[in-house]
Fold:
Amino acid sequence: MPKLHVTTTINGEPVEFLCDPTQSMLEVLRDELGLTGSKEGCASGDCGACTITVDDRLVCSCLMLAAEAEGRRIGTIEGMAEGERLHPLQRKFVEMAALQCGICTPGFLVAAKALLDRNPDPTETEVRYWLAGNLCRCTGYDKIVRAVLETAAEMRAAAR
Amino acid sequence: MNDVRYLAPRTLDEAVRALAAADGAGRVLAGGTDLLVQMRAGAVSPGVIVDVKKIAEMTTIEETADGGFRIGAAVSGAEIGDHPRLGQVWPGVVEAINLIGSTQIQGRASPGGNLCNASPAADSVPALVAAGATVTVQGPDGRREVPVEKIQAGPGRTTLGRGEIVVSFTLPPRPPGSGDAYLRLIPRTEMDIAVVGCGVSLTMQGGTCTAARVGLGAVAPTVLLVEDAAKALIGSRLEDEALEAAAAACRAACRPINDKRGTIEYRTRIAGVLLKRVAAIAAERAAAGGKH
Structure:
């Protein structure tokens, strides 16, 4: 079976890869490109551990064919920190212990960043609904939601 | 999943040709939120995957000259939710589409996919039925326009012929004093499949209902257009007797199954309850709106 040649952008960098027609974006990110931050939880779009952005829209990378990345802009958790400097959400997740085992964390961070990018001052309800597609079996969600709200407040203060 | 071909044509003609040539083994890929799950589960094993997202007509929303809307079948729920005008004129259609799955699913899932996956519980379909949406279908024999309620044939089955693709939805121009709404019953607040879904579209003039359409989901093998419920509302001032008559028509239209989400009796009863609640929201919007 011939491989498909895909030209795309990942975290701002031009990337080319070869893939099988049925390989998911998540498989290519993890197994071909070494970007293992995105996790496979359910492989059916329910858990959000594989969350990435495609042209700034949140997407489950397990439910996207790698071939569909052609010409698109992909964003993954690896693009969130600037070198050693953590994104405020990442820093706040650490400070407030908004994670335990960590499998769901990259997905939560990517999804929470997308929320704060479009709504710098979300209510708790908005945060909870926005993150309803990210499952966490450790924290009970409360610490995560509080960390997102705290980060939003901090980022608003910093922007003033 | 062996020997699958992936194609991303830029024109509908190419897409139709590829699907028709696949001899039944072709699948349209829009958002993929159903197709990829089905492939992974081994429920379908397509020979050809036709990604339609490079076809401009299928990925754009336009307001037509007469005040209607044409929504590409592969437009994502997120884009539909962000459209500056669509949600003002058709809030019920937009809220129904935006109820499907999580934020991540909304990033990809499309109304065309929701329709063609042909689940009786598809959230967008009762609202589109209520809205009087028509579907543009293109196939090897050309184009045809079909009322949206004629596409589903049964769970997982459509009336589409071989090589036919749902290209877009057309929502008609909206008279002043119109409103629509969609509600579904689920046992939680988010991320679930409708036990019953109900869409209502109304036009009110001087307090009297002059036009109505009602769509019901998850209570029959396909989403239903309930004409008797609409008849009970038209000409009324939405007083209690009219609403009860419309609710009774909804209950009478139900042919549900018993399953883990609900019993026949429960679904039938809820269909009437939802009709009343949804009609009230649509009427409120009709009174507040008409100013789009």
About this structure: The mean pLDDT of chain A is 97.
